[in-house]
């Protein structure tokens, strides 16, 4: 349930009402914008009589929220969330490109790629140190060593680091080294991991599970938000398909649909969505047109010999060209490349 206050409502009266609602056991979510002040009530609202609330002179209206996600709900937060990553903004008109290799493979590889994507105006560096591979015999990532190399690349370039964490123990041990905690498609419904990420106060990027509905994705975000961590970014990375030409099916309509449902920034990963390097550029342009707040793109200096996802990785020169084109599309969308 949402209670919207009148513009001239005295603050002390609002506080009194909030206190009485807290005493009834509700968690209060506040949202203050230029033109609104509202509170969202999380809890069993069936015990409340909305007409009693409406009767208060300070209350403008009372709105019921049917959706199971509350804190992730746009009704609770009418304005777009701008996530701050080490001073770098993402969302609400700020468009960010997260670029880098699928996996960290060596010092030269990650430093070289980091420098080149930075020169092409990427805002954040990606790179997997812990890799969720379908086969236990495939390269599993460099682990801690890989994280250290990412930190070194950050020191050299200033680009904040986005990297996947697969377990609670990794989260506890390494969260200090990482700027954006990525929770991958395979872990989107690892609720214990989401709860732990909710205890942090740094941004969490949740990738849509390959068979997850949008409501399930939003409920995963709700787990993080419910813990008090308000910095969640969502990522559309393609869903399962019977079609054999692409690895997944990029569900681009998810972007404008999610925009109506949530205030959280939505980015698109055309690399994992298509699995084909030549489709990365057209799908990146389409993502901008669909209203995405950012892109996640795999870039590799030597895709043919990459230890993971070489087929979908673009070379730094191709990335540079893509970034040039993307900026023209961003102008049309009135977004700032950041
Ligand atoms: C990745 O970004 O490295 C990754 C494994 O992506 P996803 O979880 O979307 O498969
Ligand atoms: Mn990959």
Q: In sequence order, what are the helices and strands, one letter per element? A: EHEEHEEEEHEHEHEHEHEHEHHEHE
Q: What percent of residues adopt helix (DSSP H or I)?
A: 25-40%
In order across it, which strands form the biggest sheet? 7-8-9-10-11-12-13-14
Major sheet size, sense and barrel closure: 8 strands, parallel, barrel
The first-to-last residue Cα distance is 36 Å
Shape: elongated
Explain this structure.
The longest helix has 18 residues, at 316-333. An 8-stranded parallel barrel has the order 7-8-9-10-11-12-13-14, surrounded by 6 helices. The protein folds into 2 domains: 2-63, Alpha-Beta Plaits (2-Layer Sandwich), CATH 3.30.70.1140; 83-337, Alpha-Beta Barrel (TIM Barrel). The protein is of the alpha/beta class. The chain has 11 helices and 15 strands. Strand 11 (204-207), helix 7 and strand 12 (232-236) form a beta-alpha-beta unit. It starts with a strand and ends with a strand. Helix 3 runs parallel beside helix 4 and helix 10 packs parallel to helix 11 (316-333). It is elongated and about 70 Å long. Bound molecules: phosphoenolpyruvate (PEP) and manganese (II) ion (MN). Phosphoenolpyruvate is lined by residues 102, 128, 132, 164, 184-186, 207, 237, 269, 272. Phosphoenolpyruvate binds at residues 102, 128, 132, 164, 184-186, 207, 237, 269, 272.
């Amino acid at each position: 349930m949402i209670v919207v206050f009148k513009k001239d409502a005295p603050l002390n009266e609002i506080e009194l009402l909030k206190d009485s609602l807290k005493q009834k056991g509700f968690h209060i979510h506040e949202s203050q914008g230029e033109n609104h002040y509202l509170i969202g009530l999380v809890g069993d609202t069936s015990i409340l009589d909305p007409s009693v609330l409406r009767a208060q002179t300070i209350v403008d209206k009372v709105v019921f929220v049917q959706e199971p996600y509350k804190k992730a709900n746009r009704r609770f937060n009418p304005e777009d969330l701008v996530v701050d990553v080490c001073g770098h903004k993402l969302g609400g008109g700020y468009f960010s490109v997260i670029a880098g290799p699928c996996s960290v493979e060596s010092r030269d590889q990650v430093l070289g790629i980091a420098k080149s994507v930075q020169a092409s105006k990427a805002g954040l560096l990606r790179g997997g140190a812990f890799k969720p591979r379908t086969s236990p015999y495939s390269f599993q990532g460099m682990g801690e060593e890989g994280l250290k190399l990412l930190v070194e690349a950050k020191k050299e370039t200033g680009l904040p680091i986005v990297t996947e964490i697969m377990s609670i123990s990794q989260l506890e041990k390494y969260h200090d080294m990482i700027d954006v905690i990525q929770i991958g498609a395979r872990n989107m419904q690892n609720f214990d991991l989401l709860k732990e990420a909710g205890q942090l106060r740094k941004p969490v990027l949740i990738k849509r599970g390959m068979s997850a509905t949008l409501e399930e994705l939003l409920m995963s975000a709700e787990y993080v938000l419910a813990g008090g961590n308000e910095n969640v970014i969502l990522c559309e990375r393609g869903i399962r398909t019977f079609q054999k030409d692409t690895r997944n099916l990029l569900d681009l309509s998810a972007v404008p649909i999610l925009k109506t449902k949530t205030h959280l920034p939505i980015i698109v990963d055309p690399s994992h969505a298509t699995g084909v390097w030549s489709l990365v550029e057209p799908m990146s342009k389409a993502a901008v047109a669909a209203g995405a707040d950012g892109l996640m793109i795999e870039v590799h200096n030597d895709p043919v010999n990459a230890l993971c996802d070489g087929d979908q990785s673009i070379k730094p020169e191709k990335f540079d060209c893509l970034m040039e084109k993307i900026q023209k599309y961003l102008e049309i969308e009135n977004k700032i490349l950041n």
